[in-house]
């Protein structure tokens, strides 16, 4: 047996050879969790390459190889005993890069093919450098050959391919400037593997067991603590009692590890990762020849900074009121990414380099940087790098607060200026970007800016975000929009563009009463509000397009005043970020779906004409042909923009699983709305309604009305008694299967979740359906495919597809396969029939059985 460290390129390229995954191996099974981690590591290495740093590769793991029985001298074949997941994933990533550059760099695409993916002169199965297990082979081969037309049946292999396809589109955004070839270089020459090569007769399975039998790992903090006190031969007891024990008592192990990492960052190491903390700090001590005095000084400094770090975790411990207010807001924003900058400011203040007023001013720049970027839909994927680099980049020749302002204002930081902020407040769907608690905090700050003499205590007020013009408008609302519509403009399109903009949103504690009522009824309720912004809304005569836009202008004035601007004008070139977001969401369109120019425009906060012009003039936009008119027809102005594309658009759509009606229009059931598009690129826990499923309880109401009572009261307000009784019967059936009903704390409309797992602890459980009263349009059952895709055993796409097929057996339910990554819904009224209730009960029993067998599958 031989073991050596190698690079992916050195392992697979060179003469013709093949790596075979044996039949007895499990199929390819990496989920988005593993793919995301690998992508993060790849981008980190690509950034190092961009900076010209040649050290620090990333260790990916081991590969155990054994000679194949089919081996011969002219064509070596190896059995992959361990490491098939890594090899398959990297091969798929390279296939995506090849396909990404094929149109513009066909020679480079051919090079990638021949170096890493194929044996050019071999035929049949020998053509492939990697030959996965039989179940995965057809799908893998289709992606390597570039013949993958039907993506609906590709399972986890196709899921991984499409993941890298989306991420490569994102990486082309101006905020993450890695190009495809640098990412290729990171994969092939910066990811190291230990290749264990067995000889005939070696027990390769024992080797595999030895490599993976790691046991319970110590944390980075544990390892570093053990090292430190191993070096303190004579003063260990005193240092432990004086500094370490108080430090350990004041912070959890996780927090202590974070502080140790921050200490390295504050000392100027802007590249260290938390998982490398122990190795990096140990190497520093070894290089410096640190003795007991230096080790004690390190622990003493760690102890001092722990007091500062606690103020980030517990802002109430900060003595200065202004600084405390900023820390509270940043804590509410969940802005842990800013900790390096915040620690820097508190540390410099303690050293006397700035006072509390300047500390608060500097923190206002950090808050503004985060808030303006969120409101202007700037991706968050480079925030870690920005704030981690800050201690080492802060200018030395200007005061600290001014230096931080200057640093954040650099052109590559993308801090939106006043002009862009105003434009996005007017047009962008604020309700669909950022986390729900961030959106709520923005509205709270805007309310505070009115300086009401009796301000609301936001810490105790149960406020939620309300759409003044509702998300499901009734006839009276549509009549108002028809009055405001320009020639040829539909009321529904106006509603789609305006409903989620900031001008149409407010905070209230009476959302359930406001519901979908006409504006006159909402006025009466808002007049009694303690919030100044609601009184101003109530003071208008009507609520249409002009009123929403006028309020957006008013809020924009306040936002510009509240959150300071960068030192330089961003310029119109920054609008290109909108198109990067468009490219990202189009690349994520699931198989069997399409969207319209109006839907895409509403998602972006743009206009349908601007979207059409961009699509017509921009080559290489993935899935551009799947953007149709609102009637489901190909636009008269659509033209292929690349000579490598072309052909009949309808034929391409059919190949992508889009169905057509007898009238020649794309199936409206497969159309993705602006809300659906937002889900495609949303973070997993970013629910627009702010419902936090981890806070569900089996009941737990307040003031005499339980959450269950509130749910059924709201359900009965819009649905028939037969529907209400059908839902009660469904809940009883679910509880008979061993599940429980979790009721949300929402006030807009409440919610009920069909839960499995420990009651009151849904973080360790799972749910297939979430039920919502209709707010005037009838209650719905939401099928949470997007949530299930990240939870065992439903990370298996085949199981989610089986769930979809079972639900589609209900009369009146027709969920297209393209919505298998989203959260489609059906009307609760469908459960009034005995047949549908019985079918749904059988489906839920199947779901429970699959979940209970997850560890044995």
Describe it:
Strands 1-6-3-4-2-5 form a six-stranded mixed sheet, sandwiched between helices. A five-stranded antiparallel sheet has the order 11-12-13-14-15, covered by helices on one side. Strands 7-8 form a two-stranded antiparallel sheet. The chain starts with a strand and ends in a 5-residue tail after the last helix. It contains 36 helices and 15 strands. With 857 residues, it is α/β, with parallel strands linked by helices. Helix 9 runs parallel beside helix 12. A hairpin with an 8-residue loop joins strand 11 (740-743) and strand 12.
How do the strands and helices of this protein lay out in sequence?
Blueprint: E1 2-7, H1 8-12, E2 18-20, H2 32-50, E3 58-67, E4 77-82, H3 84-101, H4 106-117, E5 130-131, H5 137-145, H6 155-171, H7 180-189, E6 191-197, H8 204-212, H9 220-231, H10 236-250, H11 253-266, H12 277-288, H13 292-313, H14 321-332, H15 339-350, H16 356-375, H17 383-393, H18 400-408, H19 418-427, H20 436-448, E7 464-467, H21 475-484, H22 491-498, E8 505-508, H23 511-514, H24 519-527, H25 532-538, H26 545-562, H27 576-587, E9 595-596, H28 597-604, H29 608-617, E10 627-628, H30 649-655, H31 674-680, H32 707-718, H33 721-736, E11 740-743, E12 752-755, E13 769-772, E14 780-783, H34 785-788, H35 797-807, E15 825-827, H36 834-852
Helix pairs in contact: 2-7, 3-4, 3-6, 3-7, 6-27, 9-12, 10-13, 11-13, 13-15, 14-16, 15-16, 15-17, 16-18, 19-26, 21-22, 22-28, 24-25, 28-29, 28-31, 33-36
């Amino acid at each position: 047996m031989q073991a050596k460290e190698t690079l992916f390129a050195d392992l697979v390229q060179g003469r013709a050879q093949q790596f075979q995954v044996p039949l007895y191996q499990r199929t390819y099974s990496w989920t988005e969790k593993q793919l995301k981690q690998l992508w993060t590591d790849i981008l980190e290495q690509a950034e190092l390459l961009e900076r010209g740093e040649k050290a620090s590769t990333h260790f990916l793991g081991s590969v155990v190889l054994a000679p194949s029985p089919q081996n011969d001298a002219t064509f070596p074949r190896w059995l992959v005993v361990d490491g098939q997941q890594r090899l398959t994933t990297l091969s798929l990533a390279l296939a995506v890069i090849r396909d990404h550059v094929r149109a513009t760099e066909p020679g480079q695409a051919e090079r990638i093919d021949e170096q890493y993916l194929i044996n050019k002169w071999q035929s049949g199965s020998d053509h492939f450098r990697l030959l996965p297990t039989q179940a995965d082979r057809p799908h893998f081969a289709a992606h390597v050959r570039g013949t993958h037309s039907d993506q609906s049946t590709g399972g986890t292999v196709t899921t991984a391919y499409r993941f890298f396809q989306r991420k490569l589109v994102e990486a082309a955004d101006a905020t993450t400037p890695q190009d495809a070839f640098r990412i290729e270089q990171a994969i092939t020459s910066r990811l190291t593997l230990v290749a264990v090569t067995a000889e005939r007769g070696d027990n390769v399975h024992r080797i595999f067991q030895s490599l993976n039998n790691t046991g319970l790992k110590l944390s980075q903090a544990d390892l570093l603590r053990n090292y430190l006190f191993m070096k303190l031969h004579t003063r260990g007891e005193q240092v432990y009692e004086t500094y370490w024990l108080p430090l350990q008592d004041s912070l959890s192990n996780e927090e202590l590890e974070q502080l140790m990492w921050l200490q390295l960052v504050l000392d100027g190491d802007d590249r260290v990762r938390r998982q490398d903390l122990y190795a990096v700090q140990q190497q520093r001590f070894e290089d410096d020849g640190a003795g007991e005095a230096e080790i004690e000084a390190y622990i003493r400094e760690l102890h001092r900074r722990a007091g500062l770090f606690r103020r980030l975790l517990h802002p109430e411990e900060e003595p200065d009121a202004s600084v405390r207010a900023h820390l509270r807001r940043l804590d509410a924003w969940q802005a842990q990414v800013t900790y390096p900058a915040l620690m820097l400011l508190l540390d410099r203040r303690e050293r006397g380099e700035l006072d509390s007023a300047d500390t608060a001013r500097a923190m206002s720049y950090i808050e503004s940087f985060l808030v303006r970027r969120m409101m202007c839909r700037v991706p968050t994927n480079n925030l870690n790098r920005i704030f981690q680099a800050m201690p080492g980049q802060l200018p030395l020749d200007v005061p600290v607060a001014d230096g931080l302002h200057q640093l954040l204002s650099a052109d590559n930081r993308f801090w939106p200026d006043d002009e862009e902020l105003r434009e996005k407040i007017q047009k962008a769907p604020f309700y669909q970007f950022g986390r729900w608690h961030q959106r709520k905090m923005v509205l709270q700050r805007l309310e505070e800016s009115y300086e009401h003499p009796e301000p609301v205590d936001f810490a105790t007020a149960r406020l939620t975000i309300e759409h003044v013009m509702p998300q499901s408008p009734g006839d009276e609302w549509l009549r108002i929009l028809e009055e405001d519509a320009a020639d040829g403009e539909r009321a529904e399109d106006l509603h789609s563009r305006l409903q989620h903009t900031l001008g149409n949103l407010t905070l209230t504690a009476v959302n359930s009463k406001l519901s979908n009522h006409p504006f006159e009824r909402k006025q009466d309720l808002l007049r009694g509000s303690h919030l100044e912004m609601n009184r101003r809304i109530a003071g208008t005569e009507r609520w249409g397009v002009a009123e929403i836009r006028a309020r957006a202008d008013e809020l924009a004035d306040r936002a510009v005043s509240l959150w300071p601007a960068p030192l330089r004008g961003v310029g119109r070139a920054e609008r290109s970020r909108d198109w990067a977001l468009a490219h990202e969401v189009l690349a994520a369109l699931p198989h069997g779906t399409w969207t319209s120019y109006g839907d895409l425009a509403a998602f972006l906060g743009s206009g349908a004409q601007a979207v059409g012009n961009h699509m017509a003039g921009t080559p290489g936009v993935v899935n551009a042909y799947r953007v149709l008119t609102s009637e489901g027809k190909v636009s008269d102005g659509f033209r292929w923009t690349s000579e490598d594309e072309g052909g009949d658009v309808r034929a391409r759509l059919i190949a992508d699983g889009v169905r057509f009606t007898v009238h020649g229009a794309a199936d409206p059931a497969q159309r993705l709305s602006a809300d659906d598009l937002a889900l495609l690129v949303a973070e997993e826990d970013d629910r627009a309604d702010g419902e936090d499923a981890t806070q569900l309880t089996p009941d737990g109401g307040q003031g005499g009305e339980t959450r269950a009572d509130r749910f059924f009261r709201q359900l009965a307000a819009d649905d028939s008694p037969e529907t209400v009784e059908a839902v009660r019967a469904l809940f009883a059936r679910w509880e008979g299967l061993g599940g429980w009903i979790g009721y949300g704390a929402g006030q807009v409309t409440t919610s009920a979740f069909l839960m499995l797992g420990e009651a009151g602890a849904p973080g360790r459980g799972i749910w297939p359906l979430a039920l919502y009263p209709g707010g005037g349009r009838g209650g719905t059952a939401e099928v949470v495919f997007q949530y299930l895709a990240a939870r065992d055993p439903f990370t298996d796409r085949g199981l989610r597809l089986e769930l979809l097929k079972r639900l589609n057996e209900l009369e009146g339910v027709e969920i297209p396969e393209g919505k298998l990554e989203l959260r489609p819904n059906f009307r609760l009224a469908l459960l009034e029939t005995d047949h549908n209730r019985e079918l749904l009960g059988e489906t839920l029993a199947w779901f429970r059985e699959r979940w209970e067998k997850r560890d044995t599958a």
